[in-house]
Amino acid sequence: MSAAPPALLLASSSPRRLELLAQLDIVPDQIHAPDIEEVPQAAEHPRLYVRRMAQEKAEASRDIIPGAIVLAADTVVACGRRILPKAHDEAAAERCLALLSGRRHTVYSAVAVIDAAGVLREKTSQSRVAFKQLDEAEIAAYLASKEWQGKAGGYAIQGRAAGFIRWMQGSYTGIVGLPLFETRSLLRTAGYHAV
């Protein structure tokens, strides 16, 4: 008789991450949103920051279910080395959209998994996105949609902002918030066999 597979704890309250996991027929046994300080260190590169956040979220959740596999992730939008905030008010979203208008930017999405033995592994996807030049009416309409709320860089690629994107390269699911290729690979290495 084989042992039951370890439980899976998702260290995130993001509905988008749950939806993405469902694409792999994965339903976490428990969800825990860790309370960590999400502030970049001075001169911290966006790739290093997103990796650190994913790892800290996983570490902060590792004792919630003893022996469980812990899955954590973080996503940031960066213009050069500048990390754009998660837009929590309309003014922040407007600043992000004005900065992204007509430019290319990078989306880093890190995944950290702690296996049942306590070993932490991490992978990071890097995607490039180019926005069209946005006019004032487009920005105003997008702000009115409220779709920007809580989104890294003030936009959601899976919504209305898809119409602003003239080019992208990399992981679409990473831009949404959970790169499924990297996630599946890490979970399988940890002993959780996703489809």
Describe this structure in words.
This protein has 195 residues and is of the alpha/beta class. The chain has a single domain (8-189), classed as Maf protein (Alpha-Beta Complex). Helix content is 31%, strand content 24%. Strand 1 (8-10), helix 1 (15-23) and strand 2 (30-31) form a beta-alpha-beta unit.
Question: Can you lay out the helices and strands and say which pair or pack?
Answer:
Elements: E1 8-10, H1 15-23, E2 30-31, H2 46-61, E3 69-79, E4 82-83, H3 90-100, E5 104-114, E6 120-131, H4 136-145, E7 165-169, H5 172-176, H6 180-189
Parallel strand pairs: 1-2, 1-3
Antiparallel strand pairs: 3-4, 3-5, 5-6, 6-7
Key structural traits:
7 strands, 7-stranded mixed beta sheet, alpha/beta, 24% strand, 195 residues, Maf protein
Quick structural gist:
The chain is α/β, with parallel strands linked by helices. The protein has helices at residues 15-23, 46-61, 90-100, 136-145, 172-176, 180-189; strands at 8-10, 30-31, 69-79, 82-83, 104-114, 120-131, 165-169.
Question: What gap, in angstroms, lies between the N and C termini?
Answer: 22 Å
CATH class, named Alpha Beta
> How many distinct beta strands?
7
In the predicted model, the low-confidence regions spanning at least 5 consecutive residues are none
Q: Which radius of gyration do the C-alpha atoms yield?
A: 17 Å
